[in-house]
Amino acid sequence: MKPTALLTNDDGVGAAFLHALAAGLRDAGFRVAVVAPSGERSWIGRAFSRHREVAVTELAGPGDETWSIDGTPSDCVNIALGHLLKRRPDVVVSGMNIGFNATMPLCLSSGTLAGATEGTAWGLPSVACSLDLDQADFEKAHRHASECPAALLPHLEAACRHAAAFARSLAGCPPQGMQVHSLNYPSTMVDGALMTRTVPALVRHGSLFRPSEMGYRFAWNDGDVMESGPTSDLAALERGEISHTVFDFGRTAPA
Questions:
Q1: Packing angle, helices 16-27 and 153-170, rounded to 10
Q2: Matching CATH number, 4-202+230-248, of 1.20.1600.10, 1.10.472.10, 3.30.70.20, 3.40.1210.10
Q3: Which of 39, 107, 215, 233 could join 102 via S-S bond, C-beta 3.0 to 4.6 A?
Q4: How far lies 170's CA from each of 3, 4, 185, in Å?
Q5: DSSP strand E in the chain: where?
Q6: Could you give the CA distance from residue 126 to residue 121 in angstroms, rounded to a whole number?
Q7: Is the pLDDT of residue 105 over 80?
Q8: Of all helices (H) and strands (E), which one includes residue 157?
Q9: pLDDT score for 249
Q10: With a threshold of 0.85, does the pTM exceed it?
Q11: Cα-flanking dihedrals φ and ψ of residue 40, to 5°?
């Protein structure tokens, strides 16, 4: 029997990057169940839709079975594992995210990482996957998420092949503690790229809002890098390497 991968994301069920990862997982021998938000749910962290009903729609989509959920990535994985899937999956995969999920502030707010975190909360091996993009490519991919710009496609497909092989190595192996594997792929990703164990760089963004007519509106800034040594995720990406960070939410620092 084929292993099953539960696939989610935070860019929406129609995102081309999700479809590419679903194809990579199928090519790696997985049966793929896609349970993803109905639209973009980026920067939402580990939020759940506590105060409203959540609509679920089954679709003909990129997976062997596909559901669109009007909720968060955490909603998607929780509802999938609790209600939709007929059997427990072998691995939970979240992504492929449009843009990186590197540096500690982004990791803490990422819906992509949250989807994988919900998987490990159920005792499943889980991996979050993200592709670094330069600003111009990010704007193109984000603005038209259902299409991958042609110049990005070879790098996206190489990232998806690696992510699928990594997921296959995890499938069926109970995680130690509450581990989430976070893979960030360089914008120049090619087959055979080196994967390096990393830690998140520390960045301080200060205010992420600017005054607007109604009050304040979100406004991204690159922030100031406080700590980014050679083992940081940013340094690995700058070298053209795959950044592999392991978060273990079952452990905290000693007093």
A1: 50
A2: 3.40.1210.10
A3: 233
A4: 11, 12, 18
A5: 4-8, 31-37, 56-59, 65-69, 91-98, 126-131, 179-185, 195-197, 202-204, 209-211, 216-218, 224-227, 242-248
A6: 9
A7: yes
A8: helix 153-170
A9: 86
A10: yes
A11: -65, 135
